[in-house]
Amino acid sequence: EAQLVESGGGLVQPGRSLRLSCAASTFTFHTYALHWVRRAPGKGLEWVSGITWNNGVIGYVDSVKGRFTISRDNAKNSLYLQMNSLRAEDTALYYCAKGVTVGAAFDIWGQGTMVTVSS
Amino acid sequence: SYEVTQPLSVSVALGQTARIPCGGYNIGTKSVHWYQQKPGQAPVLVIYRDNNRPSGIPERFSGSNSGNTATLTVSRAQAGDEADYFCQVWDSSPSVVFGGGTKLTVL
Questions:
Q1: Can you tell me the distance from the alpha carbon of A38 to that of A93, in angstroms, rounded to the nearest whole number?
Q2: Minimal C-alpha gap between B5 and chain A (Å)
Q3: What is the distance between the alpha carbons of residues B100 and B84, in angstroms, rounded to a whole number?
Q4: Contact between chains at B42 and A45 (C-beta distance less than 8 A)
Q5: Which residues from chain B sit within 8 angstroms of residue A104, using beta carbons?
Q6: Interface contact flag, A110 B42, Cβ < 8 Å
Q7: pLDDT per residue of chain A (119 residues) written in tens, 0 to 9
Q8: To probe the interface with B, which of A3, A6, A35, A45 has the most B CB atoms within 10 Å?
Q9: C-alpha dist (Å) from residue A19 to A68, A71, A115, B37, B76
Q10: Which residues of chain B have pLDDT under 50?
Q11: What's residue B83's pLDDT?
Q12: Short-list A25, A72, A27, CA closest to A53
């Protein structure tokens, strides 16, 4: 069964950085687009960023532009999210999710990694 | 940017039919995907491209999309269907837009 496993979350002070990772198994990782989606406490789902199979960045939500960078390493079956200049409003459970291509639904999700930004 | 709206909550009696709307300007011209999320669990895709069910999703879940409203229908609602439901579309940027989510309560 295809699986995504996130890691790298934790407690971090405002203004600091964190790098999230997402490891994939049992599917042809390098042929699919991947995304980061977050859910803040008491809020709904919010798409953060997406990347195509060949490292083309699909985009970022406005609130993270210039601070977050998405990347992937197909040789390592891994997706990353570099988060700089973190703010309290970035506190959320961060999920990685697989989509076939732009426009497609997200058919596989990881269990998420929690990021808490607080002093 | 494109926006989609959902009611905060929908209630349904056990065994009856729940309908969860997702509103957006001319949303009928877009593909709408639906996710179910239970507390402490990851989201699960229940409907893709308006009215298609992934493998393993019960036939009780169906979708429609026309005009300014897409709808997720849960027939013969069960206690296990209680969850947050989110609609999702792609806009032209491209970027991904989620509705605010609807909490389904089965009475």
A1: 5
A2: 12
A3: 10
A4: no
A5: 48
A6: yes
A7: 789 999 999 999 999 999 999 999 867 788 899 999 999 999 999 999 999 999 999 999 999 999 999 999 999 999 999 999 999 999 999 999 999 788 899 999 999 999 999 99
A8: A45
A9: 9, 11, 10, 25, 44
A10: none
A11: 98
A12: A72
In chain B, the residue whose alpha carbon lies closest to the alpha carbon of A43 is B100
Peptide bond into B54 cis (omega under 30): no
Distance from chain centroid for Cα A27: 18
B34: closest CA of chain A, how far (Å): 8
* Percent of chain A with pLDDT strictly greater than 90: 85
Structure tokens at B11: 């209630």
Residue located via tokens 């998405």 = A70
Q: Which amino acid is at B26?
A: N
